[in-house]
Design goal:
five-stranded mixed beta sheet; elongated; 4 domains; 56% helix
């Protein structure tokens, strides 16, 4: 919500302008009425308005002088001059002084609405929406533009609103989450995932309604911890994100809150699973995985545990490097398996198949074989690809395929796919106007934050920063 200040030495004129239109409908709120230039300058310093509507003829400090003295206070503050027909020459001079628009008295509702719509478009394009600014801050808290983004959020009251206490809620699914009304910030963080920042006071009633009737089209709703500062938001959002995917463990849609992440029993079982795999003891591996499955069935584990169990077990089975991963996000995990029980069943099958057979022998025509793999990956990098799929398609051990990538292209399979995706993302950022989330999806990433972190890791810039550098 942008802030507007109305300045006129005739109070009834200021009041009539305030009452003329639904300011909030156009993204503004009137934060003050000033009876003259002196009072207006004080209000500007105190309230930091985005737009000042000012009369021309006023005692002590007229409208033109107010613009001249007010401009240096905040470089991006807008001024709109209001005047009568007889003062048209003054209005023209005001435009030369840097006013954004002028409106004639008596006020015309359509004219004021048009000015507000134009100003909102300008401010949105210049500063971004609350959601865009917060995403930039969360992507890169140390960015050189951080203070400018914070100032824009501060002027629109977003930071004060956050300080009153907000709760992040993440919804996984294609439908929109029914909300309780009131101010909110909506962040699109995945192809089928949305985060909502809600005032803490509104969450209990909303939770009750969601628990009574799970909204159709949603698989999971996760509720994070209260945050009172934008810097606390990242962790709170990650908590809500993890909680939202708990439906994968529960085996059914639902509303989920924070859970204990440390489970010593799982740590012990994972140590045992690694030893069993090293000993190539298939029955022992299956038994250990069954015991881990029982922890999932009892509701003692989370989606984060499921992700760890899958990636670590596959890594140990195929002797992959720590940097090599089979999956990169919770979203990919829940698309690969129906639930945690299905994941455990697949791990048992993979372990049995791998431990029964000897390690694959490298073919004599390794370069020709690798060329076929490389062409396949290059043609299909935008969709979900895994070493397991390549293993099944080319009849090779995943570990051997991983070794071929390191030898032939000098990086892991995961790194090679990431480089291809980021390279295409750079092209899309340079030549198009798709949103960051849309570009992430086009190159194969359905999670906004994972994509932006990876992009910065490989390019040194966030996607937003990269786009701003284009000619």
């Amino acid at each position: 919500m942008y802030k507007a200040l109305i300045v006129d030495d005739e109070s009834w004129v200021a009041e009539s302008l305030k009452d003329l239109v639904e300011w909030e409908r156009y993204g503004f709120e009137v934060v003050g009425l000033a009876a003259g230039g002196v009072e207006a300058l004080e209000a500007m310093r105190e309230k930091r308005p985005d737009v000042v509507f000012t009369d021309i003829r006023m005692p002590e400090i007229n409208g033109l002088e107010l613009i001249r003295r007010g401009k240096p206070l905040y470089e991006d503050m807008r001024f709109v001059v209001v005047s009568g027909y007889a003062e048209f020459a003054y209005a023209q001079r005001a435009l030369l002084y840097g006013a954004s628009a002028y409106c004639l008295k008596p006020f015309d509702e359509m004219e004021i609405q048009g000015v507000l719509a134009k100003l909102k478009d300008e401010l949105d394009n210049e500063r971004g929406t609350d959601a865009e600014l917060l995403l930039r801050l969360l992507d890169d808290p140390e960015a050189s533009d951080r203070e400018r983004w914070l100032e824009a959020l501060r002027k629109r009251g977003a930071l004060d609103w956050i300080r009153q206490g907000i709760v992040p809620v993440v919804a996984v699914g294609t439908a929109d989450l029914p909300r309780p009304g009131g101010r909110e910030i909506r962040l699109k963080t995945g192809a089928a995932k949305t985060a909502y920042l809600l005032a803490e006071s509104l969450v209990p009633a909303a939770l009750e309604s969601w628990l009574v009737a799970m909204p159709p089209g949603l698989s999971g709703i996760g509720v994070g911890a209260r945050a009172n500062d934008w810097q606390e938001l990242r962790e709170a959002l990650e908590q809500a994100d993890s909680a939202a995917y708990q439906f994968f463990v529960a085996g059914a849609p639902g509303v989920f809150g924070l859970r204990e992440e440390s489970v010593p029993a799982l740590d012990e079982l994972m140590v045992k699973a690694r030893a069993d795999i090293a000993d190539r003891n298939g029955p022992a591996v299956a038994e250990t995985l069954d015991r881990i499955g029982a922890l999932f069935a009892a509701g003692e584990l989370t989606i984060r545990h499921a992700f760890q169990v899958y990636t670590m077990t596959i890594s140990w089975l195929y002797g992959l490097e720590r940097r090599e991963t089979m999956l990169y996000s919770y979203e990919q995990l829940v698309r690969s398996f129906e639930d945690a029980a299905g994941m455990i069943a697949e791990l048992k099958t993979a372990a049995d198949r791998h431990l029964r057979q000897a390690a694959s022998i490298a073919p004599e025509t390794r370069n020709q074989t690798f060329n076929a793999i490389l062409h396949f990956v290059t043609d299909n990098f935008r969709r979900d690809l895994s070493l397991q799929e390549l293993s099944e398609q080319f009849y090779m051990n995943p570990s051997y395929i991983s070794q071929l990538f390191k030898k032939e292209v000098g990086e892991t399979f995961t790194g090679y796919v990431a480089r291809l995706r980021v390279s295409q993302a750079r092209e899309l950022l340079e030549r198009g106007d798709d949103t960051i989330q849309e570009i992430a999806e086009k190159v194969g990433y359905r999670d906004y934050f994972y994509f932006t972190r990876l992009f910065k890791k490989l390019t040194g810039l966030t996607p937003t920063q990269y786009r701003e550098l284009r000619p």
